[in-house]
């Protein structure tokens, strides 16, 4: 191995370790800072030129994520999410119906919008409702987190790793959804069943509920505009319009308003996530150029990654070690050389997402729900989550892998 190759490998390992941990001990660097530092280091050692670094960044992914963040931010600020949550949850007059409504609403919204943002909206609603009706919030919060992960499997726009895969693979929005929407639906059903079994005492008592949700201030005109734009986006996605193009145009249209200050929308945009993506794209490209020979790339066949079951398991383990987006990018050089790259990408999308339900630390969505619960004085413990997460992850991964193994 050359000196540059050794340096690139060290940068790759340190960057991925920093992203997995979320910080560098002794420094105030977060995941975004770690990724950008790693990208800059790749340029500094000469693994990539500055021009190569620009080309390494997949701007389709960045643009899609930015556009969807604006759409979600507008829905949140206009009051649309809270109003929709109120309508759905206030019709739940029994604990099991409340569980069902929370799971379905979170899962369906997460299928089309970024799941992390949906958790930011849904978790406070769940905490508020369970406090008002004097119920244990934990099963409903776990359902929120796990349903957001399961639901987001269904489409390219459901979560960041799917956006990366959509851009890298070239799989169309309809084809992606046709393959993975059934897995998402099965996952949502599994969430309801497993939470119901694990927390049987919560649902055993026959109780008439009258949940009320504080709707807050709603801007009807802006809600209507956002709904029209979302319908237009769905049509555009399934009609074959490039998803990044459609999302950016949709987001830009929503910025044209007299009722909402743009600064309120911008505050909802997760800039650090965009920076992290850019940095990771550069780090992976630098490592690929400095380290990966054709022989090493071909070794994916020796690992047996053509086998759907092995690829699914490998992706799930990798995602729990280093988080789902870094895991997807780490697998990027190896997927095109497999026997069926399209199927392989779908397996990676499915497995990297569902693996997020394994532990409380498995996905950003889980951590968002836990933090929202903590802020409201309700602790969502690692053990409580794991009681649902372990069986849910195993069952959904087995079902999803079997579906893709039989369907292609």
Protein model, in words:
This protein is mostly helical and about 400 residues long. Helices cover about 75% and strands about 0% of the residues. It is built from 21 helices and no strands. The model has no long low-confidence stretch (mean pLDDT about 90).
Task: Pick out its properties.
408 residues; 0% strand; 75% helix; mainly alpha
Radius of gyration, in Å, reads 21 Å
Shape: globular
Strand content: under 5%
Structural class: mainly alpha
Taken in chain order, the helices and strands follow as: HHHHHHHHHHHHHHHHHHHHH
Relative helix content = over 70%
Work out the count of structural domains: 1
Low-confidence stretches: none
User: Number of DSSP helices?
Assistant: 21
> Average pLDDT value?
88
Terminal residue distance: 39 Å
Count the beta strands: 0
How can the largest sheet be summarized? none
């Amino acid at each position: 191995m050359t000196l540059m190759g050794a340096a690139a490998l060290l940068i790759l390992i340190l960057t991925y370790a920093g992203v997995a941990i979320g910080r560098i001990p002794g420094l105030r660097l977060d995941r975004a800072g770690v990724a950008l530092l790693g990208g800059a280091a790749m340029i500094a050692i000469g693994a990539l030129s500055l021009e190569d670094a620009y080309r390494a960044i997949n701007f389709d992914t960045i643009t899609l994520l930015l556009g969807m963040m604006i759409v979600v931010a507008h829905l949140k600020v206009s009051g649309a999410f809270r109003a929709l949550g109120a309508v759905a949850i206030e019709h739940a007059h029994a604990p099991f119906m409340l569980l069902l409504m929370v799971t379905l609403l979170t899962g369906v919204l997460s299928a089309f919008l970024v799941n992390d943002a949906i958790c930011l909206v849904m978790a406070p609603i769940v905490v508020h409702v369970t406090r008002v009706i004097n119920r244990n919030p934990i099963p409903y919060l776990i359902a929120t987190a796990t349903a957001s992960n399961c639901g987001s499997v269904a489409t390219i726009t459901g979560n960041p790793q799917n956006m990366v895969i959509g851009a890298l693979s070239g799989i169309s929005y309809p084809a992606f959804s046709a393959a993975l929407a059934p897995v998402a639906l099965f996952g949502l059903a599994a969430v309801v069943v497993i939470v119901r079994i694990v927390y049987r005492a919560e649902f055993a008592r026959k109780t008439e509920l009258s949940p009320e949700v504080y709707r807050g201030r709603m801007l009807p005109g802006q809600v209507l505009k956002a709904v029209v734009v979302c319908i237009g986006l769905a049509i555009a996605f399934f009609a074959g319009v490039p998803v990044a193009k459609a999302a950016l145009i949709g987001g830009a249209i929503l910025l044209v308003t007299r009722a909402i200050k743009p600064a309120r929308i911008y505050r909802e945009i997760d800039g650090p996530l965009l920076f992290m993506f850019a940095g990771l794209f550069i780090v992976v490209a630098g490592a690929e150029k400095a380290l990966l020979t054709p022989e090493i790339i071909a070794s994916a066949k020796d690992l047996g990654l053509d086998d759907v079951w092995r690829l699914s398991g490998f992706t799930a383990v990798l995602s729990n070690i280093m988080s789902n987006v870094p895991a997807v990018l780490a697998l990027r050089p190896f997927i095109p050389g497999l026997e069926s790259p399209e199927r392989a990408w779908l397996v990676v999308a499915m497995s990297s997402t569902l693996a997020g339900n394994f532990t409380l630390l498995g996905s950003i969505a889980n951590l968002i729900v836990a933090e929202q619960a903590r802020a409201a004085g309700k602790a969502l413990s690692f053990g409580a989550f794991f009681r649902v997460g372990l069986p849910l992850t195993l069952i959904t991964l087995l079902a999803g892998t079997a579906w893709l193994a039989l369907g292609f």
